[in-house]
Amino acid sequence: MSTAIVWFRRDLRLADHPALHAAAAAHDRIVALYVHAPEEEGQGAPGAAGRWWLHHSLAALDASLRARGGQLTVVAGSSLDALRALIAATGAEAVYLNRIYEPHLVRRDAKVRKALEAEGIAVQSFNGSLWSEPDAIVTKQGGPYKVFTPFWRVLRTHVEDRAPWEVPRLSLYPVSDDLPGLVPIDSLALLPTLDWAKGFAEWTPGERGARGMLELFADDALAHYTEGRDLPARHGTSRLSPHLHWGEISPIQIAAFLRERAAKRRNGADPEPFLRQLGWREFSQYLLYHFPTTTRKNFNPAFDAFRWARRDAHALRRWKEGRTGIPIVDAGMRELWATGWMHNRVRMLVASLLTKNLRQHWTLGERWFRDTLVDADLANNVMGWQWVAGSGADAAPYFRIFNPVSQSEKFDPDGAYIRRWVPELADAPGRLVHAPWEDPAFLKASGYPLPLVDLKTSREAALTAYRNLRHAPAETAGEPAA
């Protein structure tokens, strides 16, 4: 009887799972394995919010496998050691996996493949997370794209390359507590020790939760996505990002479902604007694959000479706590702490305040997001921060410094989002919900803090620093403290 191991990683689903699909077609029995080895992931290892999600997603996958007569074999430690032990215990002759394109894991997977193949074990890997392999899209000169629009023109031709696969017929390795190294999910200690994540209860990690979120988006927000996605007080975005990061749903599944739903409903809902946003996710993965040092270095090397301000621990703490005195920024940071998520428009505003008005190094914000976002994806997070800071690919120009007051007036005109997350301003009249410092008496009575920084003065200082960028010697560039 032929046995294969399917090594689950950030593909915690059964449907549209290329590695599982191939293994089930070629072998009599499947061993489902998850190895918890965060030390092998480098900067891509999950932060506190991500670990919360991972705990519940693993439990959901295990429940799905148990319903089919099997289990998720969970092991903590070295991936190669875990695979070797399981191969010896089950007689598996092959390992199947879906690829991850982050630098540390590309190198780790290559070492595992080389070692196992030297021992006579077949290793097969597949693309289970993207519409196209990162090295399959190149410019006419043969190099990688650095600008999104031409990249998207090519990628868009790959979106319908295949239909999503259903869950295959599975014959799973019998449930056994005698498998080597098997540990319960609870023993991984992924859940926070503080009562911090109680607000995360609005999420439903796992494949079923991903499908439910997709259906809600298709029914509720897709028809108004173009204008609704910029309004933080509305359910105007998909909120699929954590499900995508953990591979509980694939972009192929999403595109197929939205096309089918739009065709059936005929309500004018056009999935194209949303598919383009998924294209940005893929562009981030593509850039990280081709430029792996961008997790810690500026994509644009000219920014190595940018004069960042000295690290300001006080300002950074107030930014993290949502006490900057800038309402839309504080609303976003408090939403993040409470729910593990932040609206994308607001992400740009909080990042702009930190990197431009406060001129704190983009890596400081990236680290905080990495620890507190349930959808903290290394590529998306790094590229998003670099885009706002101006140092990334296809980046916002240096003179684009968001004015958080005008932005909140435009995208949260009645202050509903601010009032929800900044209760001190719940009763603020009119414009004061966006700029409470304009009425000192109200500000004092509300207990809300004065602005951490003067928006106009700090904007001018940032513009000066950006204009002088080409004239600053690289050795003066400010580096954040570790």
UniProtKB/TrEMBL annotation:
Coiled-coil regions listed: none
Pfam families (UniProt xref): DNA_photolyase, FAD_binding_7
Protein name in the entry: Deoxyribodipyrimidine photo-lyase
InterPro entries: Crypto/Photolyase_FAD-like_sf, Crypto/Photolyase_N_sf, Cryptochr/Photolyase_FAD-bd, Cryptochrome/DNA_photolyase_1, DNA_photolyase_1_CS_C, DNA_photolyase_N, Rossmann-like_a/b/a_fold
Cofactor: (6R)-5,10-methylene-5,6,7,8-tetrahydrofolate; FAD
Domain named Photolyase/cryptochrome alpha/beta: residues: 2-131
Family annotation (PANTHER family): CRYPTOCHROME, CRYPTOCHROME CIRCADIAN CLOCK 5 ISOFORM X1
Family classification: Belongs to the DNA photolyase family.
PROSITE patterns given in the database record: DNA_PHOTOLYASES_1_1, PHR_CRY_ALPHA_BETA
Keyword Nucleotide-binding: no
Record keywords: Chromophore, FAD, Flavoprotein
Tree of life domain: Bacteria
